[in-house]
């Protein structure tokens, strides 16, 4: 989605953390294709993988290929042995839809629970899990109140009531609300939630499409909480801007034909080589160190905005500025853009999604511009 304040900008080319417009203007990119370009635009190592594959094969449907096998091997290195890779898909929405089919097949239950202000996609089903949509009514889907509107114990109480009263086969969780204000709950909350799912036979689906692959500092947030979700969704950073997503299943669940796995573009060799190249680049970098450095820089540079009632929340290279009603986030984003920095406003928040490869002076300059716009907004 194009940030509306930047809809008139035409980007001609890009390199690492910079966008170059047709008229030659350079913008420091803290939008990064909705957080997907995590290792910088036009990354030469990843580009090389894609160029090599261009002369071989693009799409072979469900047939096997060395590219897909290599991507599978690379992905599985990031997960405990209890998980098995279950496929590459094109978008987060598509992989979330597949997770729904897995859960219904394995549990025999059609009910699904999501939490308010989460983002799992914009299909009819996935959008019902995160926000109210008057065009859609799916009675088997329940969206429960979430933090910070109610405290953690009330969220868990509501979930318990749903699990007791309905045939719930799946519970979707986004561990850090990337479009919902940057909120995250305590590790104890996620452990209790996981225990409830286990007790009542609902599969816990952890959506790390935005947070995965070091975006918040560690490879995945579920590791920090000491839990083992039944299903883990991931994508975005894994393709460095190429459309690709993936899913891991606990090995006790096998993919069956009734789950309708795969699709026309799922697992194609082009996506697979980009995944392998991206993950190989990550392993050659000090990703935790780079992300912690970004975190420290943003925290230090923007802590002063809280004096204006603006809340700074986030972790690693995923940050949210949550504005009070008196300050318009889109106006602030417009002022920031005038000074050469692209950010992502939505509702009354601004998301900051810098690449892990951002130049120190560019990040410092971007923070300076954002701080000034916030204080004057």
Architecture overview:
It is a single chain. The chain has 377 residues and is α/β, with parallel strands linked by helices. The chain has 2 domains: 4-39 and 286-376, Aspartate Aminotransferase, domain 1; 45-284, Type I PLP-dependent aspartate aminotransferase-like (Major domain) (Aspartate Aminotransferase, domain 2, 3-Layer(aba) Sandwich). Helices cover 37% and strands 18% of the residues. The protein has 12 helices and 15 strands. The strands form 3 sheets. Strands 4-10-9-8-7-5-6 form a 7-stranded mixed sheet, with helices on both faces. Helix 7 (187-200) links the parallel strand 7 and strand 8. Helix 2 (44-54) runs antiparallel to helix 9 (269-284) and helix 11 (329-338) crosses helix 12. It starts with 10 loop residues before the first strand and ends with a helix. The mean pLDDT is 95.
Write the layout of secondary structure elements.
Elements: E1 11-15, E2 18-21, E3 26-29, H1 32-35, H2 44-54, H3 66-76, E4 83-89, H4 92-107, E5 111-115, H5 124-128, E6 141-144, H6 152-165, E7 168-173, H7 187-200, E8 203-207, H8 221-225, E9 231-234, E10 245-250, H9 269-284, H10 287-302, E11 311-315, E12 318-322, H11 329-338, E13 341-342, E14 344-346, E15 349-352, H12 360-376
Parallel strand pairs: 3-13, 5-6, 5-7, 7-8, 8-9
Antiparallel strand pairs: 1-2, 2-3, 4-10, 9-10, 11-12, 12-15, 14-15
Tell me the total number of β-strands. 15
Uncertain spans, ≥5 residues at pLDDT below 50? none
**Biggest beta-sheet profile:** 7 strands, mixed
Structural class: alpha/beta
Report the CATH C-level class of the largest domain: Alpha Beta
Categorize the overall geometry: globular
**CATH domain topology of the largest domain:** Aspartate Aminotransferase, domain 2
CATH superfamily of the largest domain: Type I PLP-dependent aspartate aminotransferase-like (Major domain)
Task: Classify the oligomer.
Answer: single chain
Count of separate structural domains: 2
Give the spatial strand order of the biggest sheet: 4-10-9-8-7-5-6
């Amino acid at each position: 989605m194009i940030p509306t304040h930047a809809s008139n900008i035409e980007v001609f080319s890009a390199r690492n953390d910079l966008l170059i417009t047709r008229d030659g203007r350079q913008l420091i990119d803290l939008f990064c294709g909705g957080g997907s370009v995590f290792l910088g635009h036009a990354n030469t190592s990843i580009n090389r993988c894609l160029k090599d594959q261009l002369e071989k094969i693009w799409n072979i449907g469900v047939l096997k290929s060395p590219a897909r096998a290599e991507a599978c091997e690379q992905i599985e290195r990031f997960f405990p042995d209890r998980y098995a890779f279950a496929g590459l898909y094109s978008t987060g929405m598509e992989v979330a839809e597949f997770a729904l089919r897995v859960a219904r097949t394995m549990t025999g239950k059609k009910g699904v629970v999501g939490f308010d202000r989460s983002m799992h996609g914009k299909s009819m089903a996935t959008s019902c899990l995160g926000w109210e949509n008057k065009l859609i009514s799916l009675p088997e889907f329940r969206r429960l109140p979430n933090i910070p509107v109610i405290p953690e114990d009330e969220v868990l109480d509501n979930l318990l009531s749903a699990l007791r009263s309905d045939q719930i086969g799946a519970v979707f969780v986004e561990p850090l609300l990337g479009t919902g204000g940057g909120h995250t709950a305590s590790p104890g909350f996620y452990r209790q939630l996981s225990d409830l799912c286990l007790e009542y036979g609902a599969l816990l689906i952890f959506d790390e499409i935005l947070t995965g692959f070091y975006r918040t500092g560690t490879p995945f947030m579920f590791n920090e909480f000491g839990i083992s979700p039944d299903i883990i969704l991931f994508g975005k950073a894994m393709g460095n801007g190429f459309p690709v997503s993936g899913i891991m299943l606990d090995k006790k669940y096998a993919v069956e034909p009734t789950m309708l796995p795969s699709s026309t573009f799922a697992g194609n060799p082009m996506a697979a080589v980009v995944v392998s190249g991206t993950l190989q680049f990550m392993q050659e970098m000090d990703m935790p160190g780079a992300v912690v450095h970004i975190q420290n820089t943003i925290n230090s540079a923007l802590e002063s905005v809280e004096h204006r009632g603006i809340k700074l929340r986030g972790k690693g290279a995923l940050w949210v500025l949550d504005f009070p009603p008196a300050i318009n986030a889109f106006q602030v984003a417009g002022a920031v853009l005038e000074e050469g920095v692209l950010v992502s406003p939505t509702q009354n928040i601004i998301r900051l999604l810098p690449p892990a490869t951002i130049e120190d002076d560019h990040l410092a300059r971007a923070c300076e511009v954002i701080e000034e716009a916030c204080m004057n907004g």
